[in-house]
What does this fold into?
Amino acid sequence: MSTGQDSLGFGLGLRSEYYQEILEQRPAVDWFEIVSENYLVDGGKALYFLDAIGERYPLVMHGVSLSIGGPHELDRDYLRRLKHLAARVQPAWISDHLCWSRGNAHQLHDLLPLPYTEESLQHVAARVRQVQDVIERPLVLENVSSYLRCADDQFSEWQFLSALSELSGCELLLDVNNVYVSARNHGFDAWEFISSLPQQRIRQLHLAGHSDYGSYLIDTHDQPVSDPVWQLYQRTLQHLGPVSTLLERDDHFPALDELLTELNKARSVAAAALNGAPLCA
Amino acid sequence: MRLSDWQAEVQRYLLNGDATPHPVLQASLLGSAALTAEQGLAIYHNAYRARLLETLRGDYPAVHGWLGDEEFDALALAYLNAHPSQHYSLRWLGAQLADFIEGYLVPAQAAPLSELARLEWAFTLAFDALDADALSMAQMAALAAEDWPTLQVRLLPSVQWLTCRHNSLALWRACKEQSEFPGSQPLPEAQTCLVWRDQLVTRYRSLAADEATALQGMAVQGWNFAELCAELSGLGEQAPVQAVTWLRQWLSDGLLQRQSAGR
It folds into this structure.
C-alpha cells in the first residue's frame, strides 16, 4: 500500500549517458529508476555504475520484457535473472507494464496492449501471481500508451487495472503521460481514468514527453513533459497526495542540468498541488 | 476471438513486411475520430522495424557505414526475417548476423563483410562479459622463482579471439574515427586480432603469428611457462627472454588470469 510517507520523492531514469556526471556531481535526484534488462548482463560498465550509483541513491527496477499478458509461458530464466538482479540492487520495488511483448513464437519488443476482457483479466492475474511468487513482493504494473482498441473489450483500461490489482494484489505505476496519450488517441476522459483507479494501489507515477501528430499522439519519451500532462499531474497529486514521481527520457538525451530543471518543475507542481494551489496553466 | 488467437494475428501482422492487416485483425479493432484502426496498427508496424533496425545499426556501425542506410536495412530486414528475435533483450538481437551474411551474399562479398560483423560483435561481447581480476605485474613479480616453470594462465572471460583475413580492423577504425573509408582489402596473410575489456575500457590489438601461437599455447592449450620456453627453443638462449617479453606484454594488456592448479 502506498502512502505519502512511502514516497521516494522525485527520481530520474538512470541512463548510461549520465553515469559519470551522476557520480561526479551527485545531482539532487531523490532516486533512480533502472531499466532492468540493461543490467541483466554478466559484467562490465553497466553493472559497475549500477553498483556505484546504488551505493548513493535508492533504486527502483523497471522492466520492459516480462510480457505479463503474453500467450507464452513466463520466461523462468528471465525471472531468475530478475530476482538475482533484485538481490544485488535491493530495489524499493519492481515494475513492468500491463502489456504483452512476446508472441507465441517470437519476441516483439514492444509494449502491446491487451484486449480488456474477462479472459485477459484471468490470464494476466494468474501470471502476476506466478511472478509475485518468484520475486516475493508485489509486482507493480504500468499502464501503457496505446494505439489500438479492441472491439471485444468488456472493461475500460482503468476498470481492468483496478480489477487486476484487486484480483492479483499487484500495485500500479500510473504513467500520467500515457493516460493522456491514450485518452487523446481513443477519445476517453483522462481524469476519469485516473480518478477511478484504487488510490492506495498507486505506488509510483511516471512523467514523460510525447510527440503530436495532429489528430493523434505518439509516446516517444524524447521530449519535455507537455503542459496538459503537467496539469494532469497536478490534479493527480491533489487527488492522491504525495507519490514517488519519475521523470523518464529515453531518447534525444539533453544535458543532465536540463533534466534536473524539469525534475524541479515536477517538485514545484507537486508542492503547489499539495498546498491546494489552483491548477497550473 | 480468443486472446491467444488475437495475439497470433497481431504477431503475424507485425512480422509480415506488408503492412496491410488481415481482415480478421482489422475487424477485431475499433478506431476513433483521432486515430483509425489502420493508423494504430501502422504505428506498431513501423515501430517494430524501426526499433530492431536501430538496434542492429547500433551494434554494427562499421557494417552500416560500409553498406549505407539502404543496403544495410535490406540486409538487416532479411536477417530479421530469417532470425526473428528469440531473446527478451535486444542486446542479443544481432548475435547471428555474421553467420547470416555468409549465406546471404556471394562468397566474395560475404567474406569481408561477415568478418567485419564478427569483429563488431566481438566488441559487444567484450563490453559486458563477466568481470574477472586480471593477473597483474605485481602479482607476477611476487611469484617465487620455483613457481615460474609451472605457471599456467588463461584468458579473461572478456577476451575475444578473431582471425582476420581482411583489413577489418582498419575499416572498423575508420568508422570509429569517422575518417575516410579505406576500402576493403584482403591481408597478405591472416592475422590474429584480440578484443577484450581492460577494467571498463574495451581494447583491441592484432598479434604477429608467433605471438599468437605462443598466447594460444599458453592461455588456451594450457602450456605452462616451461613448456612455452621449450616451444621457443629455436631461439636458443633468447627463448626465455622472448617468453618473458610476451608475458609482460599480455599482463600489461590485462589479458590473463592465473590458472589454478591442474589442467
Summary: The mean pLDDT of chain A is 95.
